[in-house]
Write a structure and sequence with these properties.
Length: 111
């Protein structure tokens, strides 16, 4: 009988240890689920910010293109003359061209 009681006590302790292990695993799973949920929210926020950044970049590129086009349209008539020496025309337009968007900006605008 004592032998049976010892085995029963040992079995109960083993079951309690397994129950604690299951409880720990379940808590860790809940924490992991929460981390996964937080990560999904952060990724969605990042996607939205990326879209807004792209929209703003395109808006700025379009604005720079319009400003440059308007500056060229308002340039002195002599700079628009086809008969003028190209180097002289470039020298007169240099300040306007310096404000033009770079090739990288134009490439992103064309996408």
């Amino acid at each position: 009988m004592a032998n049976l009681a010892t085995r029963s006590a040992g079995g109960t302790a083993e079951l309690e240890a397994k129950a604690r292990a299951v409880e720990i695993v379940l808590k860790q799973q809940l924490e992991l689920d929460q981390v996964a949920h937080d990560l999904a929210e952060a990724q969605e926020g990042n996607r939205i910010l990326s879209e807004r950044n792209e929209m703003l970049t395109n808006y700025i590129d379009n604005l720079m293109y319009t400003v440059t086009r308007n500056d060229l349209a308002l340039a002195p008539p002599a700079t628009r003359s086809k008969g003028m020496n190209p180097m002289r025309r470039f020298a007169m337009l240099a300040p306007v061209l310096e404000r033009a968007p770079s090739d990288n900006h134009m490439a992103s605008r064309d996408r």
